[in-house]
From TrEMBL:
InterPro entries: Spo22/ZIP4/TEX11, TEX11, TPR-like_helical_dom_sf
Residues spanning the signal sequence: none
Alphabetized SUPFAM superfamilies for the sequence: TPR-like (SSF48452)
The keyword Calcium is annotated on this UniProt entry: no
Keywords: Meiosis
Species lineage: Eukaryota, Metazoa, Chordata, Craniata, Vertebrata
Record protein name field: Protein ZIP4 homolog
Highest taxon listed in the record's lineage: Eukaryota
Species of provenance: Erpetoichthys calabaricus (Rope fish)
BP terms from Gene Ontology: male meiosis chromosome segregation; reciprocal meiotic recombination; synaptonemal complex assembly
Any one cellular-component term (Gene Ontology): central element
Length: 545
């Protein structure tokens, strides 16, 4: 299809050339129609040049085009626009501005451009204005925006006009022309009153004019409009500027509408919006940061401090969620943890959660300071065994691998559980399960006596609650202990360590009578295997003598 378009455009250019060379005055319309169709099918430099050549041959000059009665003619409008573009590309801005001013004069005299040409001209003017604004040439940017404004009719209502007026207001603000900025933003509000960026511009002007109460009301109204979850991204902006405003004014007393209950409203709004962004951690984190920044201007009593720490905790949680996607966010958790340690002195339940977040982040990054976090946890008053079990789990969660810290945390957790008045046997069994799992050798090369002794000691710990608290130890755990001990004995037998093999298989047999309802299913099978093992060992001992 593309090849056909090129060929068809080439044929049309040739046809337009024929009309041009034959009799341009007689076949003017046909020549223009042919070249217009050609350029619509496939744009080529030769087609553009030919179109300009035909227009010039028809007696249309650059100086008379903008004064032509038929400015709405698409061909003439395109030619004028193309001429302005070429002048700008070649750096002849003064001449381009002169052509634009001629067009403005023509439009004011009723010689309107076609809607398509006018849209393209607006895009061209806005592009120039934006580039000048980015280069901090605000006066020049304003001039290009003003050119665009001159093509709108007085009293016209259009959202693009609202955006244009906002851009003009931004230029005036940079030029510190507050009165002109106010006029521009009023026009923007007339054209597009519910636009958040219009309200944001009004807020900026209110802040710069030190009209604090008006600014607070505007922020309040914006948040009332953009509270639904689908508009959370928009609601972020008024909260951000409000927080920045307080940061600038923090040494001044809060008066008027900016009383503490209003601050609490903004704090609560940021908090609630953060919770609604649960599925989008980056925005969730930003809202919690804003919530914390706003809480800085509330009271500093104990509930207030806990609220601030909770904000920091939620920021850390968001960073942790982001860190699971990209490890860069883990570093922010370290900064938050240090900040809490050095600035917030109140002790509350958030301390342990923050330390758990820090432990996970350092574990994932294989950080050498990981053990110091565990020590900080142990220094906390009334530490819960569950927290230590969580640390043990995090120490072994891929890509982390810290068996030493895992076992240390589990041993302390087990010790704390035993000190409780009502010992939780199930939790004890879980700790012992993990300790045995970590201690038992997994292969022939790991069958060292020191390793086996450690595992044996944990097995002995299990026998106390199993023997003296009948029925309280989970049967599934007892079966697991039996199986593990038996398999260890068989592995030792395979490497000719017969004494140790008999010892471990005997240990496995000792759990058989505690199986309860599962005993019948396993007793005959285990006893037969143990009998066979004893016979084999007896023959081996006999042959050795």
């Amino acid at each position: 299809i593309a090849k056909f378009d090129k060929t068809f455009a080439k044929v049309l250019r040739m046809l337009a050339t024929v009309y041009l060379e034959w009799d341009v005055e007689k076949y003017q319309d046909k020549a223009i129609s042919a070249i217009t169709l050609a350029n619509e099918e496939y744009v080529h430099p030769s087609g553009i040049c030919l179109e300009l050549k035909i227009l010039l041959k028809c007696g249309v000059t650059w100086n008379t085009m903008s004064r032509e009665e038929r400015l709405d003619c698409p061909e003439i409008g395109k030619a004028l626009l193309m001429h302005i573009e070429l002048l700008l590309q070649r750096g002849k801005e003064l001449l381009a501005k002169q052509k634009i001013e001629n067009l403005i004069t023509g439009c004011r005299n009723g010689k309107q451009l076609s809607s398509e040409t006018l849209d393209q001209l607006h895009l061209l003017l806005w592009d120039k204005a934006e580039k000048n604004f980015e280069a901090e040439k605000y006066q020049e940017s304003l001039q290009w925006y003003n050119y665009s404004l001159n093509f709108y009719s007085p009293g016209q209502l259009d959202k693009n006009l609202g955006k244009l007026q906002r851009n003009r207001a931004s230029c005036y603000l940079q030029l510190q022309q507050m009165e002109m900025a106010n006029e521009a933003i009023k026009e923007a509000e007339r054209c597009d009153p519910e636009n958040i960026f219009t309200q944001f511009s009004i807020y900026k002007i209110a802040v710069l004019e030190n009209c604090e109460e008006r600014g607070a009301v505007i922020c309040y109204s914006i948040l009332c409009i953009y509270n639904p979850i689908e508009e959370n991204y928009h609601a972020f902006f008024p909260l951000k500027v409000l927080s920045d405003f307080y940061a600038c004014k923090r040494r001044r007393p809060i008066t008027g509408l900016l009383k503490e209950f209003v601050l609490f409203f903004f704090f609560s709004t940021a908090w609630n919006l953060a919770l609604e962004c649960e599925g989008y951690p980056p925005l969730m984190k930003d809202f919690f940061v804003l919530s914390y920044q706003l809480s800085e201007y509330c009271t500093s009593d104990v509930p207030g401090l806990i609220g601030k720490k909770t904000c920091l905790l939620m920021i850390a949680a968001s960073c942790l969620e982001l860190g699971r996607i990209s490890s860069d966010s883990y570093e922010q958790i370290f900064d938050l943890a240090n900040f809490i340690r050095h600035t917030v002195s109140s002790k509350d339940p958030t301390d342990i959660i923050m330390l758990l977040y820090e432990f996970e982040a350092r574990a994932k990054l294989n950080d050498p300071k990981l053990e110091t976090v565990l020590e900080s946890v142990l220094e906390l008053p009334q530490i819960e065994p569950k927290a230590l079990q969580t640390i043990a789990s995090l120490a072994m969660e891929s890509p982390a691998y810290f068996p030493f810290l895992c076992k240390k945390a589990l041993r302390i957790a087990l010790s704390l559980l035993r000190k409780c008045q009502d010992t939780d046997i199930v939790q004890c069994s879980q700790c012992l399960h993990s300790l045995i799992q970590l201690s038992l050798p997994t292969g022939v090369l790991e069958m060292e006596s020191q390793v086996l002794e450690e595992a044996w000691s944990y097995y002995e710990d299990t026998l106390v609650p199993i023997s003296f608290q009948t029925g309280s130890y989970p049967e599934v755990e007892i079966l697991w202990l039996l199986t593990k001990a038996w398999n260890t004995g068989i592995l030792l037998y395979s490497i000719n360590k017969y004494t140790e093999a008999e010892k471990w298989c005997g240990l496995g047999m000792s759990f058989l009578r505690h199986l309860g309802s599962l005993q019948e299913s396993y007793e005959a099978q285990v006893r037969w295997h143990f009998f066979s093992l004893n016979q084999s060992l007896s023959r081996l001992y006999a042959s050795s003598f």
